[in-house]
């Protein structure tokens, strides 16, 4: 059977689809997840928990986008992303492992 080659310049496929990812990320409580590593105020701000950022100010914030997905951003070191990016950095695991980690907790 002929298998067409991967389109030129395409990255390797992720171990999950974009739809599955977005559906999971809408369920994940990123504030609760981040609160295991830093203290967030009622507005969702706190010191950046990234291991390479010795933050002394509340530079880190969690917010929910119009797409219903929570994201984080640190104005001190520029680190930003979704719960998957957060878990990848905090637990030193791959994106596929982070996806499964979140899926188990927010099934
Ligand atoms: Zn930071």
What can you tell me about this protein's structure?
By secondary structure, the protein is an alpha+beta fold. It has a single domain (18-105), classed as Zinc finger, CHC2-typedomain (DNA Primase, Chain A). The chain has helices spanning 18-27, 30-34, 83-91, 95-105, and strands at 45-46, 60-64, 70-74, 80-81. The protein has a four-stranded antiparallel β-sheet with strand order 1-2-3-4, covered by helices on one side. A hairpin with a 5-residue loop joins β3 and β4. The mean pLDDT is 91. The structure holds zinc ion (ZN). Zinc ion binds at residues 48, 50, 53, 55, 59-60, 74, 76-77, 79.
Write a short abstract of this structure.
The protein is of the alpha+beta class.
Regarding CATH, which class? Alpha Beta
Q: In DSSP terms, counting alpha (H) and pi (I) runs of 4 or more, how many helices? A: 4
Could you say which overall geometry the principal axes of the C-alpha atoms support?
Answer: globular
| Named CATH architecture | Alpha-Beta Complex
* CATH third-level topology: DNA Primase, Chain A
Number of domains: 1
Give a topology summary.
Elements: H1 18-27, H2 30-34, E1 45-46, E2 60-64, E3 70-74, E4 80-81, H3 83-91, H4 95-105
Antiparallel strand pairs: 1-2, 2-3, 3-4
Zinc ion binds next to loops.
